[in-house]
Amino acid sequence: MRRIIHILFFMDTVLEKEGKCEMTIYDHWLYRFLTGPLNNVAWLYILLPCVFVGGIYLTVGSGAVQFRRFGYAMKNTAGKLFGKQESAHGSVTPLQAVTTALAATVGTGNIVGTSQAIAMGGYGAVFWLWMAALLGMVIKYSEVLLAVKYRERDARGDWVGGPMYYIKNGMGPKWKWLAGAFSVLAALAAFGIGNMSQANSIVGSVTDAVCAVNPDFGGQVELRWALGIGLALLTALVLFGGIKRIGAVTEKLIPFMSVAYILMTLIVIFGNIGGVGNAFKEIFTAAFAPRAILGGAAGITIRQAVVWGLRRSAFSNEAGLGSAPIAHAAAHCDGPVEQGIYGIFEVFMDTIVICTLTALTIIISGVDVTFGVKPGSALITAAFGTVFNSTFSSVFIAVALTLFAYSTILGWSLYGSRCVQYLLGLRAAKVYQLIFIVVIVVGSVSSLDFVWNIADTLNGLMAIPNFIALFALSGVVFQITKEHFRGVDLAKAKHE
After folding, report:
1. pLDDT tens digits for 239-264?
2. Using an 8 Å Cβ cutoff, are 310 and 47 in contact?
3. pTM of this prediction?
4. DSSP per residue, 152-202
5. Digit-coded pLDDT (tens) for 317-355
6. How far apart are the C-alpha atoms of 367 and 394, rounded to whole Å?
7. How many of the other CB atoms lie within 10 Å of CB of 347?
8. Which domains does the chain have, with CATH numbers?
């Protein structure tokens, strides 16, 4: 029983009662299967090809909407975000929808995830992170478009949508099993990508900051528990207020923390401005010849660069996972395309802007990278320390990660509960929310490697049903996109 309890709650060790030995959780067959063979199948043989093949297919079929209509997308998203917006009954404003989705994407993936991409895949992983993001723009655009097209009202009159609904309503009743499969996998994945990994990063960064201020501090374990419990309580206060309360919180947190973090990275970059050109050279060179930059001892291959770039791009912007459409489906909008272009904006801001700034800050600062070892927030903290005081850097990263990760927890709590609501109804969703809150504490005291490895596998699995739906409903995406922009072009021609 003890072993079962420890496995279920993701503890660091499993004690063998029969003997005197101690077996780590990493030695358990279930953990090895989840993070080994199953992870490889989900990522290397399914998700990676789907991102590139599916991204290219959707790009061609949509008329390269993420490139040809990029100006239109920015004008009608970033250009309108802070104007007066209103929501109808059972919906949220477009700003609240996009900030809720960004809350789930702009998080530790931008800081810790980008650091891990570099450490595990070399500098070249940044290039492949960009490639995945460029294709991810059209993938998320398609997801959001379909979510709005096939959304429906729940028992409370709220708009609900996402892959489970566009599978059911778009592909037909015979595919309800696939909608159910996505809902199960996404509800489980929420505990990894949107819960434990985020809580772990918050607690780890705050603990590091406390130790930086007070090197003699000896209560790290007690502090992690206290922070985990406090974080769980704060989440509960917002979570039980529904999507409107989540939207109200994220629309205030996301712009503030994003601007603050961007300004800090820019200061570091300008402080090392002479290294920018060389940083880009190393990124592009290492993308195709990692050993030329890192040396044979690093053991980094092109395959590793591609895989880790893809993994951390997906973890950061979530394009292809099917998560963000759940938030966008609740938006009060004029139509599927009007909300779909927010997907382009999300990926651009999350990965092309924020992840790039993180990567450049690390590379040009000259901090030592231990390749092959997954870092936490130490890399970006050290990079900031080349310009700012080390204590200030630790405190700032702790605050930034706390706000980033907390907003991610809020976003994914919505995703998981909406998936459970689809499967079992509103009452079951409330029970799920309670479990979600408890797991925050568990993630706070678990090991970093364990949390991230499980999150990777669950992310890969939940994307599979979503990509099946994207391929099956691609014709709908192409038709709606073509009709919308034909009207835009005609209106523009008449105006001219």
Report:
1. 776 656 666 666 667 677 778 888 99
2. yes
3. 0.83
4. EE-TTS-EE-SHHHHIIIII-GGGHHHHHHHHHHHHHHHHIIIIIHHHHHH
5. 888 889 889 988 888 777 899 999 989 998 998 899 989
6. 15
7. 28
8. 1-35 (no CATH), 38-495 (1.20.1740)
